[in-house]
Structures are given as C-alpha cells and as structure tokens.
Amino acid sequence: MTDRTSSPNLLRSWRAMGVPVDDELRDALSERTVVTIAATIRVSSANRSRRRWTRLLLAAAGVAGAALAAYTASSWRPSSDAQPAQLASPAPAAQPTRAQAELTNEPIQARDAVGTVMLDSGGSPTILESGARVPLAVGDALTTPKDGNVTLELAHRGQVKVLPTTEISLVKDSPKEHRLRVRAGRVDVDVPKLQPERRLVLDTPDAEVTVVGTAFEVGVAEVEGAEYGTHTTVRVHRGVVHVARRGRAGALVRAGESWDSQSGASTPMPSVKRSRPPARSGTLRAENALFRAAVDARNAGDDARAVALLESLLQKYPDTVLGQEAQLELSRARARLIGATLRD
Amino acid sequence: MLGGGGSDAPPLSDEQLIEAVQSGDDRVARDLYDRLFTVVDHTLYRVFGRREPDHEDLVQAAFEQIVLTLSRRSFARACSLRTWASTVTSNVALNALRSRRRERRVLDHTAEVEPEMHVSRLDPERDADARAQLDVLRTELAKMSLDRAQALFLHDVLGHDLAEIALITGVSVAAAQSRLVRGRKELHRRVDRAVQRGVR
Q1: Whether complex ipTM tops 0.90
Q2: Residue to substitute from B26, B75, B150, B185, interface A, most A β-carbons within 10 A
Q3: How large a percentage of chain B has pLDDT more than 70?
Q4: Which of A108, A287, A318, B175 reaches 20 to 30 Å from B169, CA-CA?
Q5: Under an 8 A CB cutoff, do A10 and B68 touch?
Q6: Burial A254-291 (b: 16+ CB within 10 A, else e)
C-alpha cells in the first residue's frame, strides 16, 4: 500500500461503495430461499407449540407427583416395632433397573442439528432448529447437508451421529427394537451394551447391521452396477456387530474389524488412529457455566442478572462458540428489561 | 387470506408479515423474500465488499435468522422490518467474517474472487490499493468484539443513527455511542498497526 488512506476516510469510502443490483441472482435464489423461509416458519412454530406442550406436561407431572407424595404421606403409618431412626428417614424411591429403563418406550430424539438438517415428517419437510430436541415418529426421515450433522438420541442412552450428506429414516420404534434405514451417507453409532430383549438395527439397501452394544461406523455409497445399487461398509471400534448381506447369512464383526457388503467378509482394520475431535478450548467449561447461569437467571425472571452474566460471557470470551446464542439471549433480556421499565 | 403474492391483493404491511410469521403461516414466505431480499443482499455485499462464493448460503442463513428472531419475538418493533433485517444480516455476515478469520481464510477468499467493487475505473493501481485497504479494514473489524463491530458497521457503513442502533440492540443511546466511539478508536488503532506491519 503506497498511498495510505486514514481509517475515517476508509470508512467513508466503504459507506459510499455502490452495490450492483443483481436481478438474476434474486430470481435464481428465489425458489430455494422461499422454501427455506417457509420451512423455518413451520419448524419454529411447531417447536414453539411443542415447548408449550412440554411445559404443560411438566407442570401436570409436577402436580401429579405432589398429589401422589401427599397421598403416600397421609396413608403411611409406621409399624409399632419400627425404630425411631427408621421412622425419620423415608424409604428410598425404587430406581428402575437399566433393563426397565431400556424397555420404556421413549421416542428417539433428534438433537444438536448443525447446518440445514431437513426433517421430512409425513411429507412435510421442515428444518431442524439448532438446539431443539425433536422426537421422531416412525416414517420420519432426516437429510443432512454437506456441511451439517445431527445426533439421534436413543432411549437407552446410546446415540447415532448422522454425518454430512446422509439420508436416514426411522422404520420401527418399539420397546424392543429401534430400526433405522440409512439410504446413503455415513453414521457413527455408539451404544452401551444392550439387554438381549432390546435391539438396534440399521438397514441399508444391501445389508442389515444389528447392534449388540458397541461403537462403529456404517457407510453407504451408491455404486452403479451393484446388486442393490449401494455398497455398505462397517467399521467396528468397540464391541460386536452382527451384519448380514440382504438375503444372505449373517456374520459377527468384532472390534478392530471392518466389513463390506461387496465381499461379505470381515477383515482387520488398518491400524489408523480414529480421528479425534479437535481439542476443546480450556475455557469451554467456564463459558458453559456462565451461559447456563444466565439461562437460569432468565428462567427465574431475573433479567438484570441474566444481562450481567451474558455481558460478562461475551466480554471475557469474545470468540466463544456460544456467541450467537448469548448475543440473542442478551438482546431479548435487554428488550424485556426496557419493556418492564417502560411499563413501570 | 394472507400473502400469496396475488396481483390483486394489496401488499402486506410489515405488521401483517410479522404477525403471520409468529402465527406459523408459511404462505407469507414469498412476500417476506420479496420485501427483504434487496436489503439482505446489499448488507452482505457491503460487509464482504463482493458477492462471495457462498453468498447464496449466507442469504439463506440470514433469512433463517430473520424468521427465527421474528418468530421468537426478539424483534421489539422499535424499527422498520428492513432495518431489523439489515441488522440481523450484518450479524450473520460479521460472524461469518469472524469465523473465516479464525480459519485464516480471509486472504484466500480475496485472492480467489474477482472483486466487483470499483472505486475508480480509470486507475487500476489505485483501485487495487483501495480494495486492499478496505480488506484490511474488514479483517480488523472482524477481530473486534461483535458489539463494537456491529455498532460501527450499522452507523458508519449502513448509516443508521445512534437512537435507532440503541433500540435495535437493546441498549441505551449512551451505551450505543460508547460502543461506536470505542469501536472507531479500536478500529483506527488496529488498521494503523496492520498497515505498519504491511509497510515494514
């Protein structure tokens, strides 16, 4: 830069900069963007009503729990030979066993959507809102974009990470079996060891992968000329997986082995280290704590404290990954404060 | 019936559009696009100085954020819908600029894309110099805190007044002014330092 301009002048020339009109772009983007806008309107409206229902259900559950506790307390009579110490401490609530927990029919939930993840529910596509948890129904299909992903949380605390450019749908969701169909793309599965009466099955066009309690990846690539038009690969990192080519006998694939539907044989995986997520910043815990405290303050109706905490978060950690959410919450809390001040 | 973009129907007011979005009426999607495309497109262009290769994705992201903020009732209706859209879009764009800075991709982008801006068509050397200086300004703006960067961009580049910025960002006029003044000082300091590094 030879003839250096001062920054006020630069700002002036930035302001004076002309913006060329591009009507072709406007038309070219029209269809895609209108669809996105419509989907966003639908999904945010659905999420809002879902949140409203969740709050109502939680409130109802709280009232029912309080009523039950009151009833139990009023109908309980100590036996005559009970020791005073025993009278003072109520019996601990019975905890469900893991098997019982696994057999409850909690729906699979989609969460932590990154990018424009489409949910097709009954022929009505919507975009999953990041941060939302959406229960999936049988028939629901998810499609991840090339730069996005989403996590499916299973009732038994396992999870299926749906990686970029993947199409997956929920085929069956019963207390005994979750069945997902991966039409194309790649998923990363991590589930605890399952009870024998509970199964997680991944269907691909040319194979069926049954989970026994493990961590593994399934990749489905479209291959021209293949019997079912696809080629499925399975790489097992932990535990054991049962795999079967469509219409053929199955085989077990163990940790450290990979399998592909073309040959039907399992082979040891080359000793390549699994890619690990990038190391987290040492401040992430503190950032989360500040954000969580701000949300708690907001929920408690203390907007002034929420504002102070969010400002502190953004000031201390200007590059925080929570920046956008924090900024949004901050604006909302401030707007509420201003509203309250004006009302007063 | 709302929206639909029918030729006979009078255009929806901002108020009607917002009500429709908040009630989940997706028929107004086309009206919203037609009403706000220009402001979204121009704001993105102003932030980046060109239409970037991912301009389409940024337009989509901006519209998603606009709808989400309207739907969550974050928009306090203290300004026009267009002003709100330009603010949300500048937020999306500044965040994109910041994440690119983190990925060390800003320079790559400027190298890849032929800029559309022409300060003076008569002097290519001067043009290149002006573009380079504006790129330095953008890069340094992206390094600042979002509050200051946004106040500065909204005021000095998009031309919003302080009262409007205060309403949009939910702070007092004094706080908005403080951000602007501090932002300008910081930006000038940063640009000077960056230019000195470049000259050496």
Answers
A1: no
A2: B26
A3: 78
A4: A287
A5: no
A6: eeebbbbbeeeebeeeeeeeeeeeeeeeeeeeebeebb
Residues of A in contact with B188 (CB under 8 A): 6-8
Model pLDDT for residues B74-112, shown as the tens digit of each residue: 676 667 889 889 988 988 888 888 776 655 443 444 433
Does the pLDDT at position A40 exceed 80?
A: yes
With tokens 């069926």, the residue in question is: A208
pTM of the model: 0.45
Does A2 contact B at CB distance below 8 Å?
yes
- pLDDT given for residue A343 in this prediction: 64
* Closest Cβ–Cβ partner in A3, A10, A327 for B134: A10
Distance separating alpha carbons of residues B40 and B33, to the nearest angstrom: 9
Find chain B residues with C-beta within 8 A of A321's C-beta: none
Nearest CA in chain A to B96: A324
Task: List % helix, strand, coil for chain B (3-state, nearest 5).
Answer: 70, 0, 30
Q: Which residue has the tokens 């489905």?
A: A220
B199: closest CA of chain A, how far (Å): 7
Q: Nearest-CA distance from B119 to chain A in Å?
A: 7
pLDDT at B116 over 50: no
- Give CA separation, A162 vs A17, A134, B183, B192, in Å: 43, 15, 42, 46
Furthest C-alpha separation in chain B: 65
Question: What's the mean pLDDT in A298-321?
Answer: 84
Alpha-helix residue ranges (DSSP H) falling in chain A: 7-16, 23-75, 84-88, 98-103, 284-299, 303-316, 323-343
Region of poorest pLDDT, from A117-131, B52-66, B106-120:
B106-120
